[in-house]
Design brief:
single chain, alpha+beta, 2 helices, 37% helix, 21% strand, elongated
Length: 94
C-alpha cells in the first residue's frame, strides 16, 4: 500500500455557464485540482512557479464541486473588497 500520491497532471478545460478556464486533472484518478489553490499554470500548463505562492491541496471529483469551491472560497474575498470600495465611494460622494 502506498502512502504517497504522485499525480500525473494533464490540462483540463472547464466550461460552465459561460465561464471557461483551464486547470489540472490527474490522468489516473480523474481528480480535478483547483487552479488557484495549486497554481495550475506552474503545475500542468507550462508556466513558471512563483517564488512566494502559498500552495494548498484542493481536489474534486466533479466540475460542480470545483465551481462550488471557487464561489465559496475564492470569490468570498472579492465580494468583501468590492463592498469596501463601494462604501468608500459612497462616503466620498456625501
Amino acid at each position: 500500500m502506498a502512502y504517497t500520491w504522485e499525480p500525473k497532471w494533464e490540462p483540463f478545460k472547464v466550461s460552465v455557464a459561460g465561464m471557461v478556464f483551464t486547470t489540472c486533472r490527474d490522468r489516473v484518478t480523474g481528480l480535478i485540482a483547483c487552479p488557484i489553490c495549486i497554481h495550475a499554470v506552474s503545475k500542468c500548463l507550462g508556466g513558471s512557479q512563483p517564488p512566494s505562492y502559498q500552495y494548498e491541496n484542493s481536489f474534486f471529483f466533479t466540475v460542480d464541486d470545483l465551481i462550488s469551491h471557487l464561489k465559496t472560497y475564492h470569490l468570498r474575498g472579492w465580494h468583501r473588497r468590492i463592498e469596501k470600495i463601494a462604501s468608500k465611494a459612497r462616503e466620498e460622494e456625501e
